[in-house]
Amino acid sequence: MARSCAFHIGPRRFELVVLDGSPKKHKITAYYAGEFDLDPAADATLAMATALRDAARTHRIPRENVGVVMTSSSAAFRRIALPFSDRAKIEQVLKYEVESDLPQFSIDDVVVDHHVLNLRDDGSEVLVTAVPKAEIAQVIAICEKAGIEPLEIELETSAMVNAAISADLCHINDAQVLVHIGEFSTSVVVMDGGEARVMRVIHIGATSHDVPPTADADPEASVPADDPLEIARRVDQAIKRIRRELGRTISGARTINSIEAVYVCGMELPGLVGGTVLDVPVYILDCFDADSGQPADGYGQLVAAYGGAYRQLGGGTMKPSLRREELKFTGAWERLEFPVALVALLAATFLGLIVILQRQEITRSTYDGSLVWLQSSNNYAIGNPKDNAPARIKPSIKALRDRAAPYDIDIAKEERLPAGVRDPIDELAAFDNALQAELLAVQREIGEIQDVEPPQSAFVALAAVLDVLEDNDAAWRVAIRSVKSETNPPRGGKAEYVAVSLDLTFFATTPVEASDHYAAFRNTLQAKPWCISCEFKQDRGAQEKGGTEEEAIIVDGLSIHVDVTKYFVNRS
To answer: What is the pTM of this model?
Structure first.
């Protein structure tokens, strides 16, 4: 059987009700009413969340079907007429239509919900509820810290209506006034013909006398909170104020049927239940069946929580949604869910057909195409004794015979290749690579291919160095007085290289310019990838000379080490 739970969260107290069963027949399995331990110096949200979490653990509430009923004190109710009846269009334009009727709010700061009263061909009548987003966010924050995820949040007004509907108190041929007395506010709903017609909030409740005086109040007028006479006076004023407002509601109600009764729930106020308001009797709103698990007395305070739990079971006529903007994509997804699922199913069916056709085509191309070609290639290369096909490779290579053996099958009898054997199309390329590897091994064996690097060429190294001078012949005036190039074998861990030794003279208009040309020559050499080093060999008497008379730089014993292999790799 289904289980549901609802919390009624007020400023200082809360109630919870757990139902088990169905909307038509259910039973209260757990209930609780408690107060928040609010310390002015502590975090109120954390204290309220702790109390809710402890109550949820104690009474083992169902975590997957939880609703929350919040106070109506900050809500505003309006009744508006629209010139159309399409529900989707009502949802789209509701905020814009009601904005002018809510001057106390910025329309972007409230969540606007609605309940359709009448639908006609030429229009509709809608009961609109506006609740500040900050109030809803605070309730959600308390629930999240308590480890509770409410599926929906509603006000005391709608929860009270659903509770009265479940108790069969509202009929099509009569009218009633439903009242929920809260701590600092009183919610009122006028029912007519079994439907909610008017909702309003009276900003005074059962504990309004507990509110301490404000900072700007007259100190002489302040009365101690524990003064029994003052408390009695304030309670009496609250009762009179509520009775007076109920009288205004009854006298101003435009109902088709006459109002037969006032049903009161929530916190108790002495002298209200059992009396009359404008000759209309006042009763307690008893929505609990006998032996349904409700408490013997004080059950009026559980009505709002009961209405929320009843709604979570799927009962009630009002389906408010104060989390509509927080979960605004949920409805859109629900509208798209079926077409998206249908498209996904068609796509899966289409892809399945494509896979089947592709597998058939691959199978046909494997056995009628690539396998036949592979068998013919193997027979040509290594021979086939069954068909008396001679081998073209002599002597026959065992590795190639072993590769070809698994594919020597009768295509007409075998439906699949042996396990662990690659596809014929892949084996064709692999067989070609294996054949090339065997051919390369034979070529190395007979000496046709030698893996011996040629020696470093002294001539090529010298030509590379002289090419640098030739490339810059227009900029430099150089006289080559001595050239020597020899190959040095590897020794001491160093690879083989060519040592080029030069004696040069750089001429210019000034010694400074000649020195710059010489430096540019060395820098150009060192930038070449084939140049290992470019330096003087001091032990060979190399020196650098200059004189203002000759206007030249004389270089003796410039040693350049060249790696010829890099010259061929990096030549342009």
So the answer is: 0.58
What is the chain's mean pLDDT, rounded?
84
CA-to-CA dists, residue 545 to 511, 515, 519, 555, angstroms: 10, 10, 14, 7
For residue range 174-218, list pLDDT tens digits in order.
999 999 999 999 999 999 999 999 999 999 998 887 755 444 444
**Is 533 in contact with 488 (CB distance < 8 Å)?**
no
Mean pLDDT, consecutive 10-residue segments, the chain of 572 residues? 90 93 89 89 90 93 90 93 88 88 91 89 90 93 92 93 91 93 94 93 86 48 63 86 92 91 91 90 85 69 93 90 66 65 92 90 76 78 70 73 75 63 79 82 74 77 91 88 90 86 89 89 90 66 44 86 82 55
Given the structure tokens 């005391």, which residue do they identify? 156
Q: Mapping DSSP to helix (H, G, I), strand (E, B) and coil, where does residue 250 land?
A: helix
Question: Would you say 287 and 169 are in contact if contact means Cβ atoms under 8 Å apart?
Answer: yes
3-class secondary structure, 121: coil
Would you put residue 60 in left (φ > 0), alpha (ψ -120 to 50) or beta? left
| Structure confidence at residue 386 (pLDDT) | 67
Gap between the Cα atoms of 499 and 561, Å rounded: 5
Helices of type H across 284-327: 303-312
DSSP secondary structure letters along 204-236: --TTGGGSPPPTTS-GGG---TT-HHHHHHHHH
The answer to whether residues 66 and 149 touch, using CB atoms and an 8 Å cutoff, is: yes
Contact 196, 190 (CB under 8 A): yes
CA distance 521 to 222: 102
Going by the DSSP 8-state scheme, the letter that residue 203 receives in this structure is S
Between strands 13-21 and 26-35, the pairing is antiparallel
Q: Where are the alpha helices (DSSP H) in 366-397?
A: 371-382
Taking Cα atoms as reference points, which of 397, 478, 481 lies closest to residue 439?
397
Residue 266's beta-bridge partner residues?
A: 181
Report the top-level CATH class of 458-570. alpha beta
Q: What is the pLDDT of residues 134-144, one digit of tens each?
A: 999 999 999 99
Burial of residue 51 (CB within 10 Å: 0-12, 13-18, 19+) is buried
> 527, 464, 526: which is closest to 500 by C-alpha?
464
Count H helices and E strands in the chain, helices first.
13, 19
Query: Pairing relation of β-strands 276-277 and 531-536?
Result: unpaired
**Which residue is associated with the tokens 């502590």?**
42
Q: Which residue reads 């030429």 in tokens?
A: 122
Contacts of 422 (CB under 8 A, 6+ apart): 430
* Half-sphere exposure (Cβ direction) of 163: Cα atoms closer than 13 Å: 35
Tokens (6 digits) for 19: 């139902």
201 close to 186: Cβ distance less than 8 angstroms = yes
